[in-house]
């Protein structure tokens, strides 16, 4: 412990926000309203704001390396913001492009129907979880509920075994939403994942518009300190918190909002002194943290996407005028055809950037990797230089089995040879908490209590609040909307502890 006991009166309205991701920026936006009279300082460890909202233009036009979807539009503040500031979004409904285990594309109608049936079961699981959450045992898996439902549904099918096998493989996509293998996800808590109603929107113009808007609303109204990695958060008394960072910054504040990711909190509980109370440290340790990563592969031409209105190969790829020839989102089920590089038959799914509106379209296929598959892929590549032959060769070998299944693939054509690869490694990013976002693993207990405990924070006792997607109310955990809500809530609590109420239009 450093410094003598500071005068808490002098610092009462000095607020420190640790982390300049969406939650931190939203909190700063509210608290930096001059009429409230707070002095707001944001301390950010990276050399940029945005956290897990981040873009690169290394492959051509900007792409999102972190968040890229708006999950549900009803009551979603991010959907409203995107509309207000004119972000370009693409509505993605049911997936109807599914490559089966043997590498053949399912008939689109069958694919769509099965995909929708899978969602019906997932929604049933959420409803069941909601209404029976108290009695559902801790070790119950969402996957087992899904498979039991399949058993009974399959009875009316002409070939129950292949129906079960197909549906189960599609159902595994739940893992991508959780950033972890679906067999690790809890039934007791799956109700927390019931998202908002309305479309799933893909941010064609990327999340940059949202980030820029939030930055603009705080510009000149608060201090944003970059390259400032906070290492300790010390409560000298119930009213004064000292914050120290690796760049030598040390200051005392009347209130602190900690928005560092759950994965960071898991590894840095000793940053807090006195130690975190058991309720909070238990919440941090019990919630799960996923590992979703993205692999972008660029080609000279989008060979898989014939011109709109000109169906390629066969009827299977026929399109309507409103849709690209090859859809934006497709699934690859457990592959039997990539024994050398994927003997465990981990599934994957892709986004085709060539299907975006013209000004955002690019000849890029992006693969989602997560869970064991994600660890395997990033583990193989880590340590190699992105511009090296080895990096390219590893990613080529891993993903060739899939992109070679795209329509029109011709191994002799230069247009079918990748020109660039890019792999994210959130799992190796300490400021992202070595992962992607929060989930609810089997055996974790009642996760709603953990989020409640984190949302309550230690504001009353120690003037330390938590925000971030992991503290979101149900429906927002793991999302940008949840991060935004959580920043808003923490800011309102800080204001209200001074008897202030931020303007409702902020
Ligand atoms: C690959 C991927 C895909 C995703 N896809 C989607 C999606 O499509 N839709 C969606 O809604 N959500 C998605 N998410 C989740 C979404 O990005 C997050 O929920 C959201 O951005 C979290 O915001 P946050 O403010 O809670 O945390 P963060 O954005 O992580 O912000 C926390 C900040 O704290 C900083 N920090 C960390 N440690 C320190 C320290 N010691 N000192 C100072 N600062 C520190 C970090 O650098 C960071 O800027 C995705 C995430 C990933 C990784």
From TrEMBL:
GO biological process, one term: chromatin remodeling
Family in the record: Belongs to the flavin monoamine oxidase family.
Binding-site residues for FAD, renumbered to this chain: 23, 44-45, 230
Enzyme class label: oxidoreductase
Entry keyword annotation includes Flavoprotein: yes
Any Pfam family: Amino_oxidase
Organism: Stachybotrys elegans
Lineage: Eukaryota, Fungi, Dikarya, Ascomycota, Pezizomycotina
Amine oxidase domain location: 22-494
Entries under Gene3D superfamilies matching the protein: 3.90.660.10, FAD/NAD(P)-binding domain
Coiled-coil blocks: none
Name of the molecule in the record: Amine oxidase
GO terms, molecular function: chromatin binding; flavin adenine dinucleotide binding; oxidoreductase activity
Cofactor(s) the protein requires to work: FAD
Entry EC no(s): 1.4.3.-
Sorted UniProt keywords: FAD, Flavoprotein, Oxidoreductase
Residue numbers binding substrate: 368
């Amino acid at each position: 412990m450093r410094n003598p006991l500071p005068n808490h009166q002098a610092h009462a309205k000095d607020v420190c926000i640790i982390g300049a991701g969406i939650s931190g920026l939203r909190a700063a936006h509210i608290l930096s309203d001059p009429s409230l009279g707070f002095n707001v300082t944001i301390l950010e460890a990276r050399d940029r704001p945005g956290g897990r909202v981040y873009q690169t233009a290394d492959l051509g036009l900007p792409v999102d390396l972190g968040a890229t979807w708006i999950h549900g539009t009803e009551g979603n503040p991010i959907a409203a913001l995107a509309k207000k500031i004119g972000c370009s979004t693409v509505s993605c409904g049911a997936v109807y492009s599914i490559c089966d285990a043997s590498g053949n594309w399912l008939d689109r109608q069958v694919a769509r129907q099965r995909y929708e049936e899978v969602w019906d079961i997932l929604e049933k699981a959420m409803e069941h979880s909601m209404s029976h959450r108290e009695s559902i045992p801790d070790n119950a898996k969402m996957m087992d509920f899904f498979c039991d439902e399949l058993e009974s549904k399959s009875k009316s099918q002409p070939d129950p075994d292949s129906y079960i096998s197909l549906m189960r493989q599609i159902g595994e996509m739940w893992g991508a939403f959780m950033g972890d293998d679906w067999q690790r996800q809890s039934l007791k808590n799956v109700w927390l994942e019931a998202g908002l109603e309305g479309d799933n929107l893909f941010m064609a113009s990327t999340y940059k518009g949202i980030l820029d808007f939030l930055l603009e609303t705080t510009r000149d109204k608060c201090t944003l300190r970059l390259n400032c990695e906070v290492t300790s958060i010390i409560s000298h008394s119930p009213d004064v918190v000292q914050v120290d960072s690796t760049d030598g910054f040390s200051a005392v504040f009347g209130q602190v909002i900690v928005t560092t990711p759950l994965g960071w909190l898991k590894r840095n509980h000793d940053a807090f002194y006195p130690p975190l109370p058991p309720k909070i440290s238990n919440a941090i340790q019990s919630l799960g943290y996923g590992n979703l990563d993205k692999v972008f592969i660029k080609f000279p031409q989008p060979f898989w996407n014939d011109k709109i209105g000109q169906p390629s190969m066969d009827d299977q790829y026929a399109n309507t005028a409103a849709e690209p020839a090859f859809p934006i989102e497709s699934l690859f089920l457990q592959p039997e055809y990539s024994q050398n590089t994927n003997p465990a038959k981990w599934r994957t799914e892709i986004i085709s950037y060539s299907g975006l509106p013209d000004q955002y379209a690019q000849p890029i296929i992006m693969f989602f990797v997560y869970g064991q598959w994600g660890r395997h892929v990033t583990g193989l590549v880590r340590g190699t230089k992105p511009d090296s032959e080895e990096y390219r060769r590893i990613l080529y070998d891993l993903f060739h089995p899939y992109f070679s299944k795209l329509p029109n693939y011709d191994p002799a054509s230069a247009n079918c040879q990748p020109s660039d690869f890019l792999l994210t490694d959130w799992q190796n990013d300490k400021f992202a908490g070595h992962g992607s976002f929060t989930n609810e693993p089997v055996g974790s207990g009642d996760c709603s209590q953990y989020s409640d405990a984190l949302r309550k924070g230690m504001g009353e006792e120690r003037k330390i609040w938590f925000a971030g997607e992991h503290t979101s109310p149900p429906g927002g955990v793991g999302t940008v909307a949840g991060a935004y809500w959580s920043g808003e809530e923490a800011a309102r609590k800080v204001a209200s502890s001074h008897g202030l109420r931020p303007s409702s239009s902020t």
